[in-house]
Design goal:
Blueprint: H1 3-9, H2 49-61, E1 66-70, H3 73-80, E2 89-93, H4 98-109, E3 115-119, H5 125-130, E4 135-141, H6 153-162, E5 166-170, H7 175-178, E6 188-192, E7 206-210, H8 213-226, H9 232-243, H10 245-264, E8 269-273, H11 283-289, E9 296-301, H12 304-313, E10 318-319, E11 329-331, H13 343-348, E12 355-359, H14 365-375
Parallel strand pairs: 2-3, 2-4, 4-5, 5-6, 10-11
Antiparallel strand pairs: 1-7, 6-7, 8-9, 9-12, 11-12
The structure holds pyridoxal-5'-phosphate.
């Protein structure tokens, strides 16, 4: 089955006796055992039919063997980090969602004895140089948040294999419809299911998807032990979102491309980050590993005053944190997603007071462009 069909029919196991087209939502926290042997489901923290159905769908569309659904992307990542014991060293991309950086630095490093090096992973030599006897994993976000930097997943996977390291890839920005890191050699894929997978800004969710059953077994153990699993009703909402993932992503990609090129032509915009620009040095990598360019764009305006004017002046774009939903959002990373990063580090990476990130939604693209134009109308 192709991915559009998998999004609807990957798992047929939850059909009920009434012929419901929509899968039932099993809200039950616990399940009766019909004999002294334990039934398939016993307690919903361990496993729940509605959540399992969603996990089967996500495993299928990421071309993995098993997926685990969590109560947020951060819950997924926090649970996966339990795979590493005190003294483990991890090499990670230096452009990451601020919350992931906060977890790595302020929890995993400070409290749990892991150590991290953050590097530009586009240049894979940077990774190889840092591998030591304690290195256990490489962690990538590609494209990254918020600078949209791309890393060659297959090339890093071969470094990981050679050195017996796990490769973990956060695939939130492109979704499984546009990129499948496991197919390029990654071991674990992370998603904030809050974003494109659910797609309607109405649920928090996260996923870890794996290929190897021995890694799956460990994550299952930490998942049931830590207990940050996704509720049955939220599982239903994400499942419903996934049914329209392909068609949403197609429109989002189309809209984003037009907006990115429009932004690039505006005199008040000094820089646009969009992975679909063919003159980018990583464009050949994107063409190899992704089936589209997604809906994320970040850009720098010529002044902080203009950036604030745009944030205050938009009417369709909403000034809000998050991404990947049907509604277009504009985010001020400096004050929102990356507010916890030390100012010096932010400045160095260009996450300054002139820098904005947009998540393009499903509105008419002419209306979206007009919205951006009118927000800074008297300045052009
Ligand atoms: C790339 C990326 N990964 C992970 C997360 C965390 O996901 P959640 O907000 O669902 O915990 C985010 C949130 O914005 C993100 O952008």
């Amino acid at each position: 089955m192709k991915i559009e069909t998998l999004c609807l029919h990957a798992d047929q196991n939850l059909k009920d006796e009434w012929g419901s087209i929509t899968e039932p939502v099993y809200l039950s926290a616990t399940f009766v055992h019909s004999s002294t042997s334990i039934s398939t489901y016993s307690y919903s923290r361990l496993s729940n039919p509605t959540r399992k159905h969603l996990e089967n769908t996500v495993a299928a569309i990421e071309y993995g063997s098993e997926a685990f659904a969590f109560s947020s992307g951060m819950a997924a990542l926090s649970t996966v980090m339990k795979l590493f014991s005190v003294g483990s060293h991890i090499i990670a991309s230096n452009d990451l969602y601020g919350g992931s950086l906060r977890l790595f630095r302020n929890v995993n490093a400070q409290l749990e004895g892991l150590s991290f090096d953050f590097v530009d992973t586009f240049n894979t030599d940077n990774i190889e140089k840092l591998i030591n006897a304690n290195t256990k994993a490489i962690y990538l976000e590609t494209p990254s948040n918020p600078l949209l930097l791309v890393t060659d997943i297959a090339e890093v996977a071969s470094i990981a294999k050679k050195n017996n390291l796990l490769l973990i890839v956060d695939n939130t920005f492109l979704s499984p419809y546009l990129q499948n890191p496991l197919s390029h050699g990654a071991d674990i894929v992370i998603h904030s299911g809050t974003k494109y997978l659910s797609g309607h800004n109405d649920v928090l969710a996260g996923f870890a998807v794996v290929k190897d059953p021995s890694i799956a077994e460990k994550i299952a153990y930490y998942s049931k032990t830590i207990g940050a699993c996704l509720s049955p009703f939220d599982s239903f909402l994400v499942e419903r979102g996934i049914k329209t993932l392909p068609i949403r992503m197609d429109r989002i990609c189309e809209n984003a491309k037009k907006i990115a090129y429009w932004l690039r032509d505006q005199p008040f915009v000094t820089k646009v980050n969009y992975i679909g620009f063919s003159d980018r040095k990583d464009y050949p990598i994107t063409l190899r590993q992704s089936r589209g360019f997604g809906g994320m764009i970040s850009f720098e305006l010529s002044s902080a005053r203009l950036a604030r004017k745009l944030l205050e002046g938009v009417r369709l774009f909403q000034y809000a944190e998050s991404l990947g939903g049907v509604d277009s959002l504009v985010t001020y990373p400096m004050a929102q997603t990356h507010a916890d990063l030390p100012e010096k580090e932010r400045e160095l990476r260009g996450i300054n007071d002139r820098f904005l990130r947009i998540s393009v939604g499903l509105e008419n693209v002419e209306d979206l462009i007009e919205d951006l134009r009118q927000a800074i109308e008297n300045e052009i």
